[in-house]
Predict the structure.
Amino acid sequence: MVSDTVEERLRNSLADFVLGIYFKLRGTPQGDRYAQTLISAIRGEGFVMRNVWTGVFRDSVRAAVQRQDRIKYTPYILELEAALG
């Protein structure tokens, strides 16, 4: 998400891919738990990289959320925005 050696278009595609997984998991009977785990992983919670949720990385993830289809995923986007602070 923040590497200068990876083109912005690829970074955006990868972020969109991960968020797409979140949307597919969210709302399914067993997927909700996995969706929450995915959000925790994005924020770096419980990992050695605890301080990743700052600056450019945080802003990049927030921008990726803003690019998503707000009509199709509105309830989940609102949850994401709240979870990602």
About this structure: Residues 8-84 form one domain. The mean pLDDT is 84. The radius of gyration is 13 Å. The helical segments are 8-25, 31-43, 55-66, 70-84.
